[in-house]
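User:
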Amino acid sequence: MTTISENPQAPAATEAAKTADRGLVGLMPEPIARAVALGGSLLTIVSCFLAWTWDPGFPGDLTVYGYPAGLQLQVLLLGALTALFTLSSYGIKGLGWLTPAGADAAIKFGALASFATAWFTLGAISVDLGGLVNLEPGGIVLAVATLATLLAALDLPFTRPSVLPVDPEDTRWDQHKQQRRNHWAAVKAAFSAPHPVRKLPALPSAVEILIIAVVLGLALGVFTYGIGTEYDELFLGFLITAGLGFAAISASGLLKQATQLTSKHQNLSIAGAFIAAALFPFTQTDDQYATLGVYILIFATVALGLNIVVGLAGLLDLGYVAFLGVGAYAAALVSGAPTSPFGVHFPFWAAILVGAAASVVFGVLIGAPTLRLRGDYLAIVTLGFGEIFRIAVMNTDGTSGPDITNGSNGIASIPNLNFFGFDFGQTHTIAGFTIGRFANYFFLMLLIMAVVVLVFRRSGDSRIGRAWVAIREDETAALAMGINGFRVKLIAFALGAGLAGLAGTVQAHVTYTVTPEQYLFAGPIPPNSAFLLAAVVLGGMGTMSGPLVGAALLFLIPNKLQFMGEYQLFAFGVALILIMRFRPEGIVADKRRQLEFHEHDEQPAAEPAKAGA
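Assistant: Predicted structure:
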């Protein structure tokens, strides 16, 4: 255990004084490092117009001069972003708005993103084509430029945190651990914004709305590009580019200012987000990626319903996917499918009410006797309910039990929806655009998603929503304040179940078939209870947009990583561990949870010699 010497501040202050005028690497002084970072980023841009390999066998055709393609476009974007951040750090007029929180941390993330994407590409070329001999001079220029940019960016000065000195009386292992802690504290400080984000100046409402529209357009473009990546290397490069590029923009303060605008115009931002999502099918030439889009919306809708149970009320539900199955089976039984033993065909509006009502009833029946439990005991009971549902529909096949669900064969040949003469299974033409079957269901799920978002917002801001949060934070204190804990939790459980059933009614018609194997606790293909819970936690518990982002990532990434075969879940698990290690509060963090996870973070004590931002 590390002990504190008689005067620990003196060595720490001395060390800070020695290192305040240099960065992490210590190869060059600040003016040279900044100039090299700018020159390296500009050279990175130039290298994107050169051929990186002479062999056209590598996907994307990186053999052409003067015409960037595939991964070259990603590196070009990152190089331009790093160059702009670096120019902003020089105080060039008209570029200060790019770095409201300071430029140096953004430069480091941008340089790291360029380096990672570029060297991944060069490594993929060497592996796929059989060695470094397949690289053209443009590839060598790219490698040198991105490496120089990264080293120079790491040499930009930063405020070093005060740390405990290594006690010479400690064991060698304890000294090593203390050194690692000190080094990690320095790395975190190097990649932290040098000062708080400047408050956005007052702008005309029209300008603010225009900025929100641009942000939403960029988000639509990124999503469309990511979902439409045509080969494996391009998607992996996109993950690196999007992840580290997002970190660079966040470190610059632009993301914080955009959040300020969307919070100011919250209703308008939500409406704009739905309009941007509705434009997605019009960006596609066929129904291939609309298929992914509609499944992502189903997954995200169910995750948002689970967020009421887990994120707002704090009830750990490990069998939530069963409510999706209840809604799907209820809608399938009254859909007029030839394999349904009921032989009835309800109109869509009636089927969707049946599915949602059935899920609510099951939610109340399961919640009433179990919600007096807390913590792990409640989680075990809900896990058991999920498995009981799957086994029950497996056995109601007319042999082991009554003939209701056809057992393991499920209910097949579910007809397409027909709503007031609009057949969702047919191709339609809207404003000259051809809209296929999955695009039709995409628009329907978007409307259901809007209903779920409205319910989440209204309930979260209501009196009962505040009661949920109180129970989540401290149930004993909430009960002492007069909150009826059982009733409040039962409402959350039933509401979450109803929203899942709502999505299940559409899922049954999209997939044509419902079977017990679709509603497992865990499996490689979402939605299942484990993936739904991961979407809520990864995206951000208690937030509205967090589970939507988490669900989109958790559905898209496994779908695109299928080329990894048996290593798919391993790579996916490692990625989740890294994300939760470095951002435990989730991608879209609730302010309360963000403070909880970072309440022990130390504030830097020494002033830097040069801010450079």
